[in-house]
Amino acid sequence: MKVTERWHSERMHRPVTLARWGHFGVPVLVFPTAGGDAEEVERNHLVRHLWPLIDDGRVKVYSCDSVAGRAMVDKEGTPAHRMWLFNSFHEAVANEVVPAIHADCGGPQPIVVAGSSIGAFNSFALICRYPHLFDAAVCMSGTYRIETFLGGEVTQDMYFASPLHFLPGLDGPLLDELRRKFVILASGSGQWEDIGESWAAAHVLGSKGVPNRVDDWGPGYDHDWPTWWQMLPVYLDDLVP
Length: 241
Description:
Elements: E1 2-9, E2 14-21, E3 26-31, H1 40-43, H2 46-55, E4 59-64, H3 67-74, H4 79-105, E5 111-116, H5 118-129, E6 134-140, H6 147-150, H7 156-161, H8 163-166, H9 173-178, E7 182-187, H10 195-207, E8 212-216, H11 225-239
């Protein structure tokens, strides 16, 4: 039931792949971890754990290449270039990936975004930047101060890509729209987890009146795929009809 398509992104100046599992239901765009491709969620068995929701026709799961995350992992170019690519990646998702999902679904409809680690950052950023496109975000084991991994001072591109930077100054219709959405910030407190990242994101959201919730799954949940196998089906079961 997997379908893939690939095109050359005008915004990122490189190819990008979009994969889909399922035929019916609410579209759920799951971002890979740092350098993952569109099929990482399948190779690491997350799709298998979502299969009851897919098989019941409640969700259609999509995933696209983590282009900016791959550049970060590979230390491609300068820090400024890598920050530019995160901004461009978000623009490509909004203007290329989302229209492709809408075309596949037969018309525009709200999308749930989800992801873990850097995928959580991308989910958080996308719903804050483009709340008219997304209905909710499930951010698992998130890392939200990603400029610390990019090796440079915050550029204008990074400012606009990072909600921890741009959200405090957000106002007007965009903020009004964002206040009608919901952001879940879930984390374990086991190995390699830092729930302080989730609380920092929640503080910024809460200060702007954006509905959100931090869930601490406890010390038995590490920063690893088995944690996300447990988390995402629970949250999607609550979010989708």
